[in-house]
Amino acid sequence: MGEIEKRLLQLGIELPEVPNPLGNYIPTNRVGNLVYTSGQGSRNIKGKVGGDLSIEEGYAAAREATLRCLACLKAELGTLDKVEKVFKVLGFIASAPGFTAQPTVLNGCSDLLVEVFGDRGRHARSAIGVSELPQGIAVEVEMLVQVRDE
Description:
The structure is a single chain. The protein has a single domain (3-20, 27-147), classed as CATH 3.30.1330.40. The radius of gyration is 15 Å and the shape is globular. It has helices spanning 3-10, 55-77, 102-117; strands at 28-31, 34-37, 40-41, 83-94, 124-130, 139-147. The longest helix has 23 residues, at 55-77. The protein is built from three helices and six strands. Strands 1, 2, 3, 4, 5 and 6 form a six-stranded mixed beta sheet that branches. The chain is α+β, with helices and mostly antiparallel strands.
């Protein structure tokens, strides 16, 4: 078991199964030492933040989506120990009209990445409010990470 997997265990975090894609795409795409995840959603938390859902529920949805990204990365790399740096996160938050706290919601992703990877988990990011997401999910997250060469 790698160091990151041990850290997940200490935090009481279990990665979900790699989700089946909802269309004709792959969960990750790698070129050289960069891996980009396809958008992963909060399949268990649905609705619009600021309407059906509270900020706290949106935060939990961002965390869930991020765990799905990590599951995809682990499947691609074999171990999360190969992640050298989380480079960029892009989060889409299904938002009720007038809701503007998307950055607070996406902290569910960012806080998790720092808990798991420490400083390697600090990243640039964008948090974007949208009117709808696939299957009514609350949050979708995609990540770009730098990895150690084989």
